[in-house]
Design brief:
Length: 138
């Protein structure tokens, strides 16, 4: 595969200037989620310094392992697989992962809702409290 010099733009940071090998380019691509088609726009999968990545042109979360498989990257053959997704990824990726580790970055909401300064919440309530009982809140 040819190697190209390119500038990779991400939504939150500065561009990355890198030499990358293009694995596959797919116009108007998609991934699946629970049988539904999720559009990704134009997609390129790349390899850079031993790291492979799938770059999409439409904002979408990683939902299924076909996000990698459709673009020439076999997710079952990787020691570490990183996805940017809140929770939608779990049903598919947990089937092929030995461990699922959640990471937290900057953003409007933390992964752990207990970190928020709740003031008008009737406790106990899930997910803030481990011990809860089902009840109707009026």
């Amino acid at each position: 595969m040819p190697v190209y010099r390119c500038y990779l733009l991400n939504e939150l940071g500065t561009p990355v200037d890198a030499e990358v090998e293009i694995i596959r380019c797919v116009p108007n691509a998609h991934q699946t989620f629970a049988g539904a088609i999720v559009p990704l726009g134009d997609v390129a999968s790349i390899r850079m310094g031993g790291v492979e990545a799938v770059l999409i042109s439409t904002r979408a979360q990683a939902m299924g392992s076909d996000l990698f498989a459709n673009f020439g990257i076999d997710p079952t053959q990787r020691k570490i697989l990183v996805v940017k997704s809140n929770q939608h990824f779990y049903a598919s990726f947990s089937k092929i992962a030995a461990h699922v580790i959640y990471a937290e970055g900057d953003g409007p909401l933390p992964r752990n809702f207990r970190k928020l300064p709740w003031r008008r919440v009737q406790r106990p309530i899930w997910p803030l409290d481990a011990e809860t009982e089902p009840r109707l809140i009026i």
